[in-house]
Design brief:
Rossmann fold; 8 helices; about 25% strand
Length: about 240
């Protein structure tokens, strides 16, 4: 994330859990995304939650027996995570753009707006390489980005492919602060994954319907809220896997 994103989440941290209380991580991650990952060869074990924030994703993972490590660029968000989870989940400050190799993980997550904040040319690609560098052989990377539909609802009805947009959040019970994000096309996602030396295993459209989650094999940016990508680092000697054109 950028310096501006760090400042935004340092400001939002005390109110973040209340502001995002409608986000049901047990449903979203626990009941939909993790089973989807299992269908793409997910191995149970260690998970790195990048952009973990206050640890909203920790509980569904811990409940299923995962060993969790979290990192985030915002010290204030990490303070909230430590207050909730103590020593049960180690967390550390790290910048997604130059993420160090923190270990060899069976699963690396970057969910819920993390990659959208990479607005400068080359940052997104650097981040995906950094995420991939933390995968064990046979490990899985899961990340999402916002669709044009969501940008048009949250930022401007005139949002276009690849555009960068800013909005000021002033209704969370904290000081007004700016959030700046960039739209990423399917083509850009595919190229970044390939550039990181990873195989794209699935690219899915995600939307909410009647308080549930729908994952579609074909992305529709006018229908879906997010594009969900599953990528993997293949084991030595294994042939490459390719999804789509």
């Amino acid at each position: 994330m950028s310096i501006a994103a760090k400042a935004a989440y340092d400001t939002l941290a005390p109110a973040y859990d209340e502001y995002t209380r409608a986000n049901n991580y047990e449903l979203w991650l626990g009941e939909f995304l993790l089973p989807e990952l299992q269908g793409h060869g997910l191995k149970h074990g260690r998970v790195l939650d990048v952009g973990c924030g206050t640890g909203r994703a920790f509980e569904p993972l811990l409940r299923r027996g995962w060993e969790v490590v979290g990192c985030d660029v915002s010290p204030a968000m990490l303070d909230q995570a430590r207050a909730k989870f103590g020593n049960a989940v180690p967390v550390l400050e790290a910048d997604l753009r130059d993420l160090p190799v923190l270990g060899s993980f069976d699963l690396v997550l970057a969910l819920n707006d993390v990659l959208n904040y990479l607005t400068e040319d080359g940052e997104f690609e650097r981040a995906v390489r950094s995420l991939g560098a933390n995968l064990a052989p046979g490990g899985r990377l899961l990340f999402d980005v916002n669709t044009l539909r969501l940008f048009r609802a949250m930022y401007t009805p005139d949002a276009e492919v690849g555009g960068t947009y800013e909005t000021v959040l002033d209704d969370a019970g904290v000081a007004p602060h700016a959030h700046r994000q960039r739209h990423s096309s399917e083509r850009r996602l595919r190229a970044a994954i390939a550039d990181a030396g990873l195989d794209l295993l699935a690219m899915l459209g995600q939307r909410e319907v009647s308080d549930s989650i729908v994952l579609s094999e074909e992305v529709d940016e006018d229908r879906d809220d997010k594009i969900v990508c599953i990528a993997g680092r293949r084991k030595l000697g294994a042939p490459p896997l390719v999804v789509g054109a």
